[in-house]
Design a protein that fits this description.
Blueprint (H helix, E strand, L loop, with lengths): L1 H18 L46 H5 L4 E2 L1 H6 L6 H8 L4 E6 L2 E8 L5 E7 L5 E8 L1
Parallel strand pairs: 1-3
Antiparallel strand pairs: 2-3, 3-4, 4-5
Length: 143
């Protein structure tokens, strides 16, 4: 008799625990927190400054342009790729590598630039930047 009571009790707990729904809950772990761009960050990752101090007027290529698909990827060394800091900005990467990168994706406010690693054939680096120009992701992969 005790076993039946215990089984009934366990079944009741399982059924009530599984039937509860998340009413009014949010998927965000920290509700009410918004991300603000940092002060002094450029509005777009393409904003580089000229030697005279003013902003250089450069057009950022679109991710789907046919002209950019035919262009070869800018080459950087593995050492340069290793020196790219996750706390850096697009301008820091351009200064470090001497290359602007090839824009391969522009969606949801993030821009993805790709580089070829010159001293490791078949390896590539993708850098994803937030809208404020800060690095979001860094991926080294092999094609």
């Amino acid at each position: 008799m005790r076993i039946w009571v215990m089984m009934l009790l366990v079944l009741a707990v399982v059924v009530t625990g599984c039937s509860k729904k998340n009413v009014g809950g949010t998927a965000s772990p920290t509700p009410g927190v918004t991300v603000q761009p940092s002060a002094g960050a450029s509005a777009t990752p393409g904003g580089t400054s000229s030697p005279t101090g003013g902003a250089a007027a450069t057009a950022t290529p679109k991710a789907g342009d046919t002209a950019t698909k035919d262009e070869p990827l800018p080459k950087i060394t593995k050492e340069q790729a290793d020196k790219i800091s996750m706390t850096g900005t697009y301008d820091d990467v351009v200064k470090l590598t001497g290359a602007k990168g090839k824009l391969v994706k522009d969606e949801n406010g993030k821009k993805t630039y790709e580089y070829e690693i010159s001293n490791q054939p078949g390896y590539y680096v993708q850098l994803v930047f937030f809208a404020d120009g800060k690095i979001s992701e860094k991926r080294v992969y092999q094609k």
